[in-house]
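[Discussion] Sanity-checking designs against the backbone

I'm trying to build intuition for which residues belong where. Below is a structure token string of 142 positions. I'd appreciate it if someone posts a full sequence so I can compare it with mine line by line.
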């Protein structure tokens, strides 16, 4: 990550109050919260097809208007599927998959961290759900 710089900005009173409320809700400082909001605003500007949502695992990038996380699309491509194959299997436009890949390349460390967490949970699924039964389903067309 690049070196952090101090920047001074002027905000309207209602913006300051919103910032403080959001910081309290997140358990962060107002400075950390402002930096996160600015970062997400810049990401929105650079990648309008991608949106950041709060999840149980933290703030996560999704293809806008879908339930498809960027990390999952990147993982599938990095494991050998083509964007077209993914789009066909999910019945979604390939443009969203390509937008997710562009985002994933710029924020690769963040995306790889999400993939690693998912792999860890998958590898330890029996620990998380000790009474679960693993069932294999043939997904090929009948």
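Best answer:
Here's mine. Compare freely.
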């Amino acid at each position: 990550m690049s070196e952090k710089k101090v920047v001074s900005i002027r905000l309207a009173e209602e913006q300051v109050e919103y910032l403080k409320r959001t910081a309290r809700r997140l358990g962060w400082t107002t400075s950390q919260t402002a930096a996160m909001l600015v970062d997400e605003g810049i990401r929105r500007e650079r990648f309008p097809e991608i949106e950041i949502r709060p999840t149980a695992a933290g703030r996560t990038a999704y293809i806008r208007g879908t339930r498809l996380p960027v990390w999952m699309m990147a993982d599938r491509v990095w494991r050998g599927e083509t964007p077209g194959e993914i789009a066909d299997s999910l019945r979604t436009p390939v443009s969203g998959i390509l937008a997710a890949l562009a985002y994933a390349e710029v924020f690769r460390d963040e995306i790889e961290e999400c993939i690693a967490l998912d792999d860890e949970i998958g590898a330890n699924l029996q620990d998380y759900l000790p009474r679960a039964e693993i069932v294999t389903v043939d997904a090929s067309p009948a």
